[in-house]
């Protein structure tokens, strides 16, 4: 499969639609294609899968003790599974119902599924996008924050309109979430 087709497909997966297109392209570079015949196990109960599986084509069935009362769960194109941690063995079986093609993002690359922002980025504010720099607030003390104004703003040294509201929302979420 060519990388452009994989990127386009991944852009349609609900889990990935919140990511920027650059992240989706990076994921498309790293995924591997796996093919299964009808009746093949993709993941067996108590065994770890290889990573996060995105169904490209075909159907799969999820069964196991968790679904004993409800019956099986059927998965189709754009559905995904296997997003647990490396050391948590799933208590389900995932079986191919038809010829099944999955795109697999290995466990070691799961971090790419998390969007980077000022709240979870590893860098410094200078590494953030302009919007993130403008919305970034430095907590000084309880209910007191320091932010920046637009770099090309007039010399008023004040914040107006949408920037003020955006920073207010950020300061509120920082306090609500207990973030530093």
TrEMBL record:
Cross-referenced InterPro entries: Acyl_CoA_thio (IPR003703), cNMP-bd_CS (IPR018488), cNMP-bd_dom (IPR000595), cNMP-bd_dom_sf (IPR018490), RmlC-like_jellyroll (IPR014710)
PROSITE patterns: CNMP_BINDING_1, CNMP_BINDING_3
Molecular function terms from GO: fatty acyl-CoA hydrolase activity
Every Cyclic nucleotide-binding domain range: 15-82
Coiled-coil residues: none
Identification of the protein by name: Cyclic nucleotide-binding domain-containing protein
GO BP term, pick one: acyl-CoA metabolic process
SUPFAM superfamilies: cAMP-binding domain-like (SSF51206)
